[in-house]
Design a protein that fits this description.
With 521 residues, the chain is an alpha/beta fold. Among the domains are: 233 residues, Rossmann fold; 98 residues, 2-Layer Sandwich (GMP Synthetase, Chain A, domain 3), CATH 3.30.300.30. Helices cover 29% and strands 23% of the residues. It contains 16 helices and 26 strands. A nine-stranded mixed β-sheet has the order 3-2-11-10-12-13-14-15-16, sandwiched between helices. A five-stranded antiparallel β-sheet has the order 1-17-18-20-21. Helix 3 crosses helix 4 and helix 5 packs across helix 6. It holds the Pfam family AMP-binding. GO terms for molecular function: ATP binding; CoA-ligase activity. This is 4-coumarate--CoA ligase family protein. Keywords: ATP-binding, Ligase, Nucleotide-binding.
C-alpha cells in the first residue's frame, strides 16, 4: 500500500459555498472573476453579495433543499455565481455540457430528476426542448436575458430573505457531474459538500495560489477538473480567475498576454498547441510561472518541448477522476526535477494500491504495473440510482477501482500507462495506446494522433493509428508513419494500420473519444 507523504488534512465539513467563499470579505475589492473576452470583472465582495441575493431569489422561486438544479452554460462570470447560489439555496447542481443535444440533456435531466435549469440565452432553445422531453422541470432561468424567463441579473434586486438551509456536508450532494460516457452510459456522480471541500484542502499544499495569482480558465467549469482547479480552488485562496467560454488558440494566447496570467491548468491538446503551433511565437507569455496538465495522459517529451519553448519549469501533471472529486496525485508546483512523465505523488490523506490485472487480489510492488486503486476522503458517495455500478467501482473496504493502469517508483511518483479497457491485446501482448500516441506526436509531420485496437482478418487485435497531418506535411504517407513507429518500438507494439483524419475527436476534458473512432473503423 502506498500512503501520502503529506500530513493529513482535517475533513472540511462546510457547505461548498462557505468552504470557497468564506474569506471573500478578507479579499474584498480584489478581482475574483474576469471575463477574458470583454474584461467584465466581479470582485470578491460582489461575488459573495451577488450569489447570496440570487440564492434568496431562487429560494423565493421555490428551490428547496434536495432539489437538483441543472447548470447549462459555457464558462462565464455568471457560472460560479449561479453554482454557489444554488448550493446556498440547498440544491445539488448537475453541470451540463453546453454542446449537449436536447436528447442528451433530457437524459441527464430525467436521470437526475432536475426541477430547475439555469442556462444562457444562446442555449435556451436546447434547454427548452430538453425540458419538454424530460418533463418535471419547473422553471428555466437565464444568466443574461431572454423574453419570458427570469434572469439572474434581475434576481440581484431580490428583497427576499437569504435562505437559511441546514446542510449536512457529510451526506448532502453539492455537485452531480456526469461521467464522460467514453466507456459506458453516463452516470451521475454524487459528490458531497465535504468530499469536494476536503479535496480542495488536500490540494492546497501542492498547488498553492493566492492574491496576485491569475489563473486562466479555458477548460470548462461543467467538468470536474475545471470546477475544482479553475473555479473552486483559486476562489478559495483569493486568486483571480480569468475565464474564456471556449478554446480558440489566438484568443487563449491573447488572454495570457493581456491579463498577465501566472498559472495554466490545461489538458494535453493545449500543451501540444503551446509546444508546436507557430502562433505561440507572436505573443508575450512571459508572465507564466507554471503549467499543469491533467484529464488525459501527457507524453514526457511533449511536456519537455512545451517547457523548453516557453522557458518554464517542467510541465507538471495531475491525476484524478470525476469519482474522486477529482484529485489524488499532483506534481507539486516548484518540485525539484520530478521524473519525466509522472502524474505526481499522492496528495494528503490519500492511499493507493496497485493490483495485478490477472489476479485482482494481489498487490504489486515498486515498478510493477497494475490497476490503480484509491482510498481517501475524496472518494465519491456513489453513482446516483445505480447501487450495482457503485459496488462495482468501490469495494467493501472503500477502495475505488480506477480502471487505470500504472506503477509507482521508489519515491512514490505515479506513472499512468493506460486504461484497463483501452489496452490493446496483440497476440497476448499488452499494447498501451497512450505510448504509441506519444511517440507519433514526436514526428514533425504529425499534428495530432489517436490509437485504438481493431481486429484484422485473422482475428488479432492490432494498433490502428488515426493521424492528423501538419499543414506542411500533406505528402506524409501511411508507410512512412508505420516505419517511424517500427524503428522505435518492440515488434508487437508496431502500428499496423493508419487512417488520416482532419481532427481527433475529444471530450471537453481533452480525453480522446476512442468510441467514436471505433465506430468509424
Amino acid at each position: 500500500m502506498f500512503r501520502s507523504e503529506y500530513e493529513d488534512v482535517a475533513p472540511v465539513e462546510l457547505p461548498i459555498h462557505e468552504a470557497v467563499l468564506g474569506r471573500a470579505a478578507e479579499f474584498g475589492d480584489a478581482p475574483a472573476l474576469i471575463d477574458g473576452t470583454d474584461g467584465t470583472t466581479l470582485t470578491y465582495e460582489q461575488l459573495d453579495r451577488f450569489h447570496r441575493r440570487i440564492a434568496a431569489a431562487l429560494a423565493d422561486a421555490g428551490v428547496r433543499k434536495g432539489d437538483v438544479l441543472a447548470l447549462h452554460s459555457p464558462n462565464t462570470i455568471a457560472f460560479p455565481t449561479a453554482f454557489y447560489a444554488a448550493t446556498r439555496a440547498g440544491a445539488s447542481v448537475t453541470t451540463v455540457h453546453p454542446l449537449a443535444t436536447p436528447e442528451e440533456f433530457a437524459k441527464q435531466l430525467a436521470d437526475s430528476a432536475a426541477r430547475w435549469i439555469v442556462t444562457v440565452s444562446p442555449l435556451l432553445d436546447i434547454a427548452r426542448r430538453a425540458a419538454e422531453i424530460a418533463g418535471g422541470v419547473q422553471e428555466i432561468f437565464v444568466c443574461d436575458s431572454a423574453p419570458g424567463h427570469r434572469s439572474l441579473i434581475d434576481m440581484l434586486a431580490s428583497a427576499a430573505p437569504e435562505p437559511q438551509v441546514a446542510i449536512d456536508p457529510v451526506e448532502d450532494v453539492a455537485a452531480l457531474p456526469y461521467s464522460s460516457g467514453t466507456t459506458g452510459v453516463p452516470k451521475g456522480v454524487m459528490l458531497t459538500h465535504r468530499q469536494i471541500a476536503t479535496n480542495l484542502a488536500q490540494l492546497e499544499p501542492v498547488i498553492a495560489m493566492g492574491p496576485g495569482d491569475r489563473i486562466l480558465a479555458v477548460l470548462p467549469f461543467f467538468h470536474i477538473y475545471g470546477l475544482t482547479a479553475l473555479m473552486n480552488a483559486p476562489l478559495r485562496q483569493g486568486a483571480t480567475v480569468v475565464l474564456l467560454p471556449r478554446f480558440e488558440l489566438d484568443t487563449f494566447l491573447a488572454a495570457i498576454q493581456n491579463h498577465r496570467i501566472t498559472g495554466l491548468y490545461v489538458a494535453p491538446p493545449i500543451v501540444l498547441a503551446l509546444a508546436k503551433h507557430p502562433a505561440v511565437a507572436q505573443y508575450d507569455l512571459s508572465s507564466l510561472e507554471y503549467i499543469i496538465s491533467a484529464a488525459a495522459p501527457l507524453d514526457a517529451q511533449l511536456a519537455a518541448a512545451c517547457s523548453r519553448r516557453l522557458g518554464l519549469p517542467p510541465v507538471g501533471q495531475a491525476y484524478g477522476m470525476t469519482e474522486l472529486s477529482p484529485g489524488t496525485h499532483v506534481v507539486p508546483v516548484g518540485a525539484d526535477n520530478p521524473p519525466p512523465g509522472t502524474v505526481g505523488k499522492l496528495i494528503a490523506g490519500t492511499e493507493m494500491r496497485i493490483v495485478s490485472l490477472d489476479e485482482p487480489d494481489k498487490d504489486l510492488g515498486i515498478g510493477e504495473s497494475g490497476e490503480i486503486l484509491i482510498r481517501g476522503p475524496q472518494v465519491m458517495k456513489g453513482y446516483l440510482g445505480r447501487p450495482d455500478a457503485t459496488a462495482a467501482m468501490i469495494d467493501p473496504d472503500g477502495w475505488l477501482h480506477t480502471g487505470d493502469v500504472g506503477h509507482a517508483d521508489a519515491d512514490g511518483w505515479l506513472f499512468v500507462v493506460d486504461r484497463v479497457k483501452e489496452l490493446i491485446k496483440y497476440k497476448g501482448f499488452q499494447v498501451a495506446p497512450a505510448e504509441l500516441e506519444a511517440l507519433l506526436l514526436t514526428h514533425p509531420g504529425i499534428a495530432d494522433a489517436a490509437v485504438i485496437g481493431v481486429y484484422n482478418d485473422e482475428g488479432n487485435e492490432i494498433p490502428h493509428a488515426y493521424v492528423v497531418r501538419q499543414p506542411a506535411a500533406a505528402d506524409l504517407s501511411e508507410g512512412e508513419i508505420m516505419m517511424y513507429v517500427a524503428e522505435r518500438v518492440s515488434p508487437y507494439k508496431r502500428v499496423r494500420q493508419v487512417t488520416f483524419i482532419d481532427g481527433v475527436p475529444r471530450a471537453a476534458s481533452g480525453k480522446i473519444l476512442r468510441r467514436q473512432l471505433r465506430e468509424q473503423s
